[in-house]
Amino acid sequence: MTVQIELGTQKTGLPAEMDLEELLATRLLVQGNSGSGKSHLLRRILEQSAQWVQQVVIDPEGDFVSLAEEYGHVVVEADGSERDLQMIAARVRQHRVSVIFNLEGLDADRQMKAAGAFINGLFEVAREIWYPALVVVDEAQLFAPTAAGEFTEDARRASLGAMTNLMCRGRKRGLAGIIATQRLAKLAKNVAAEASNFLMGRTFLDIDMARASDLLGMERRQAETFRNLDRGQFVALGPALSRRPVQIAIGEVKTRGMGSSPKLMPLPEQPAGQDLQDLLYASTEGNMPPVEKSRPRPVDTQGVLRQLAVSSPPADEEPPGEAEDKHDEADITAAVIDILSQMMEDPEAAYRPVSLLYQDFQVRCRIARINRPPDLQGFRELLPIARAGGDVAEAASEDWPRATQIASGLPDTMRGAFLLIARAAAQGEPCPSNMEIATAYGTRSPGRARWLIGYMEENGFLSCSSDLRGNRIIGLPELGWQTAPGHPDGAEDRAS
Fold first, then answer.
1. Which first-to-last residue range defines the signal peptide (predicted)?
2. In whole angstroms, what is the distance from residue 433 CA to residue 19 CA?
3. Considering the domain boundaries, does residue 296 fall inside one?
4. Cα–Cα distances in angstroms (integers) from residue 386 to residues 64, 435, 436, in the given order
5. Does residue 60 lie within any of the structural domains?
6. Which CA distances in Å does 473 have to 370, 429, 436?
7. Element (H or E) spanning 18, and its range?
8. N or C: which end of the chain has fewer CB within 10 A?
9. Tens of pLDDT along 198-211?
């Protein structure tokens, strides 16, 4: 099926169209300096193609979240773990849901890691769900930079590798990359070179104009064309656009971005002299300047997992709130402890992400007729204790709250391992083996356990020593607790 979407008008007045099916096979590169109309162009493409193809937008500035209200995109906030983000991406492909992956508010390093994890999640799915999808990456030079910048090398490699996979190998998996950049010179060449369609907007730097003219097959003397373009005008070339370079003006859009170009407005009349100083230095009580109200946060990572989850409660189940609450607080606490203990009996529970465990927890609570189970944050606080193998009721003991308080200074994924060690130290038990610590950490790698112990020791959470037999002893300085000697490899591993 051939679908032509209208981008705007050519210089001759004829409509400027894009072959959507050809675009899926050949990819697109958009370039233009700030203010040239790149975001407007991307928005036009997304609006015109929304009814025809699944869309995934990597949005570093939160500029495209307004598409959600008009076209039903799900807004994914990048505030979960990399494992959560990859799982969401896989479900996005499975259920063919159009999404906006919002990276607004993250620093450069976290943006690159989150984008890399999400794009890899789109890429690494089973063959049977290789459905066609447009993957739009705004400000692509942030995720595929040519050189080092204000980010770590690990983040750069992860993001650049994901972008390279998208543009080089994504076609066979149904992923059509549309990348937009302010500076071609700052975009990795192996990423830009895979695009066969080009929309080049206003550009002023000689190095960018020269590279744009080379990509379009124009002579160097024609590079001045890009300097003379107005806002919203682009030179188009490619099998999905035109067989020769043509200048087009992008049409109107229905939705608006979160930001806009500043407009001049007259200054208000101001009092002079002492009156003006009084305005600036007056008491702040009752005289605070207006503060911008933050817009409602879109659905967060855990919310999206719940939206995309394939499982649903039984049809005959009573809606939450309608069933009679048959539990008092003591019964609820005991039931929650029992549910968590049952969940941790599953050997695979240690390796499942928190989002899936919480879904399982909610279903079990509904079956047990618990209408007021802990929320997600409360579940996150209880889960490390359960993963550590300790009864959740220990949290009410005299010394245990101090251990959980210290554990709160660690990332969520590390707290279970710390509390496992703390529980052994509190009861004078042998030091847990590397495999036991790795399981509480959510991995099957003993090497990760050794790294984790080193990390916690470097940050003052614990101290390690060994006896003459090679057994490990871990002390918790702030608690005054210490484990009994235990071999790092465990008794079973040494026997084998």
1. none
2. 59
3. no
4. 40, 17, 14
5. yes
6. 42, 10, 15
7. strand 15-19
8. N
9. 898 888 777 777 77
Note whether 54 and 181 are same-domain residues.
yes
The predicted pLDDT at position 177 comes to 92
- Would you state the structure tokens that stand for residue 435, as one six-digit string? 């495999």
CA atoms in the 13 A half-sphere facing the CB of 271: 8
Closest CA to 77 of 41, 182, 68: 68
In a domain, 62, yes or no: yes
User: Do 112 and 239 belong to one domain?
Assistant: yes
Give the residue numbers spanning the domain of 491.
Answer: 318-495
Domain-embedded: residue 295: no
Read off the tokens for 480.
């005054």
| Shared domain check, 336 and 237 | no
Assess whether 102 and 233 both reside in one domain: yes
Contact 196, 27 (CB under 8 A): yes
Distance CA 463, CA 469 (A): 18
The reply to whether the predicted model has a pTM over 0.90 is no
From the CA atom positions of the chain, what is the Rg in Å?
Answer: 28
Residue 369: CA atoms inside 13 Å, Cβ hemisphere, count? 8
Residue whose pair of structure tokens reads 């204000």 in the numeric block: 150
- Residue 304: which of 356, 367, 246 has the closest Cα? 356
Among 250, 284, 301, the domain-final residue is 250
Residues of the chain with pLDDT under 70: 1, 219-224, 258-263, 265, 270-277, 279-333, 350-351, 355, 371, 381, 388-398, 491-496
What's the domain count of the chain? 2
CA distances from 296 to 75, 98, 293, 483 (A): 12, 20, 9, 48
**pLDDT on residue 258:** 60
- Specify whether the CB–CB gap between 463 and 449 falls below 8 A: no
